[in-house]
Amino acid sequence: MTQHDARPSFDHQAKPAAGTPRKPARAPKSVNRHEQRSIALSQGSLEYTLRTSARARRVRLLVQPGGELEVVAPHGASQARVDAALREHEAWITRTRDRLAKVAPVAPPQPLTNGRLLTLADRTVRLSIQTGAPEGRFRVHLTDDTLQLTLPREDEALTRPALEAFYRRQARAIIAERLAHWNKHYGYTWTRLSIKEQKTRWGSCSRAGSLNFNWRLLLAPMPALDYVVIHELCHLKEPNHGVGFWALVAQTCPDYREWRGWLRKHGHELRL
Hints:
Layout: E1 9-12, E2 33-41, E3 44-53, E4 60-63, E5 69-74, H1 79-88, H2 90-101, E6 117-120, E7 123-131, E8 139-142, E9 146-151, H3 156-186, E10 192-196, E11 201-205, E12 210-214, H4 222-235, H5 243-252, H6 256-266
Parallel strand pairs: 1-11, 3-5, 7-9, 10-12
Antiparallel strand pairs: 2-3, 4-5, 6-7, 8-9, 11-12
Helix pairs in contact: 3-4, 4-5, 4-6
């Protein structure tokens, strides 16, 4: 079972069949339910939120920044299966909560005003906000060192969604380029590339060969973004985080431990 904490991390499902790209299998309709539950463990009673999902294929544990525990289980999973996962990973839950308790609270996001410096993949740009766009629209002009955003009017409620939409578009282009670059070494095949804002993952690889990436990777250093791209590429070959998987990652990212650790430590800071 892949373990998760409050930092966006990786997830994957079963290995896709080799060969030419094919249409992804239709996913079952999502059925999500949330319930508050508790279990008696060796260190006392443990409160958690149980979320059942038709898309889940195994039991996953997630510790949120405040220490809250969420258990994601396949729809129809027995309570005994959930209890077994909690008992097996009791020590991990305790360690993760202790580690998160030492992390300084994240400061509120800085206002997106004129002159704000932004990270965009491998460069730093200065935000320049202009007015004059039609209502409900925005324009972006990017130069070497300036990101000019034209809005109907100066309003933080307009600036942030517009920038996020721009970053999503940029993420698709940049991550597609990095996938092509690193795949020259691996030669794998995927069925689809999607850009999302996942709360607990930086990337994922489905059993149908669909690769998903978090747009906020553009706020990280380029080596961290490349590590995530390589990580998910290797899941097309190795579905588990075993010795063979990490050996495959190390072929093109020998310092993967450094960037995996960097994302765990600083990932919660990657916000506009």
